[in-house]
Amino acid sequence: MTLIPSDTHDAIHRVEDPDSGLLGLIAIHSTQLGPAAGGLRMRPYDSFEAALEDVSRLSLGMTYKNAAAGLPLGGGKAVIIADPATQKTPELLRAFGRAIERLDGRYITAEDMGMTPEDMAVIGTETRHVAGLPEGEFASGDPSPVTARGIFNAICTTWAARHGSGDLNGCSVSLQGLGHVGWHLAGLLHQAGAKLIVTDVDPVRVTAAVQAFDARPVALDDIYGVEADIFAPCAIGGILNAKTIPQLKTAIVAGGANNQLATPADAKALHDRGILYAPDFVANGGGIINVATEILKISDRTHFVDDKLAALDQTLRQILADAEAKDVSPDTVAINTVDRMMAAPQAAE
């Protein structure tokens, strides 16, 4: 591993293993609240620089996400620069596991885009510092269903903040991304009576959603201009930007994608347009809550997850109320709220 200089992170490591073809990054943003925890993402990035930017932003987001969820965990993230469909091998995963082990517990990994619980098990043959395993005493498995539950709660809460009721029956939701999380979310929204408009890079998933949820399909770039009550981004980050925000024809943005805002200024742009935004690092905290049961060795997993999801939903309610009272973006309030949470242990000392 090679340490990459950073003024914003505790450490960013470049990980290479020529024998397996591994090239990746491990970013530890903060260990202030505990060991850095965050998933491992596998994507064929356009460049190393693009991967570095992504892992840097994602690890920062994990610091805020873990703090907002009230977890004794810091923020970290890892990426492997490769196509999971064609380049994922046991040798490559084991090599990455050895790199994690050399960090001696400062970073704990789990499943993210392009990875599965079974992949975590392979990584786990080389390191103790892995969660999201498919089996074992505290195994938490696929976090996607719990992530989707948290996002669904956030959508209902944000809808209630605007309309006085969290009942989604008859409302329209444009859903971007039908991966593990997006698919589970689509199911919850459909059960609640919402009308779905969907898109995904995989046309097979779109067809399946049309059949399963009576959804209306649209082209990838058309999702931004669709008229809908709620826009739920559940794919890649940076999709709320100077190009897409003017296209939006929705009252609310609440979804599961990480780092939805391309820049901090985009939060104000949404607010100026009267679009209520549920900060992503609050809305999508369900997955790390699920994984935390494994990291923290929680025996009563159901009780822990339910309590943490309820507390996270209450945090979002307060953020939205404060934002309305101050006439500012909820993202601004959310960042200030988490900053206070993170300062609390230092104040106690």
Per CATH, the class of the largest domain reads Alpha Beta
According to DSSP, the number of beta strands is: 13
CATH superfamily of the largest domain: NAD(P)-binding Rossmann-like Domain
Beta-strand fraction estimate: 15-25%
Alpha carbon gap, first and last residue: 35 Å
Largest sheet geometry? 7 strands, mixed
Radius of gyration (CA) equals 19 Å
What proportion of the residues is helical, as a percent range? 40-55%
Number of helices: 11
Poorly predicted regions: none
CATH topology of the largest domain: Rossmann fold
Q: Tell me the number of structural domains.
A: 2
From the 3D coordinates, which CATH architecture of the largest domain would you assign? 3-Layer(aba) Sandwich
What characteristic shape results from the CA principal axes? globular
- The succession of helices and strands, N to C, reads EEEEEHEHEHHEHEHEEEHEHHHH
Q: Which structural class best describes the helix and strand composition?
A: alpha/beta
Kindly report the average pLDDT value.
95
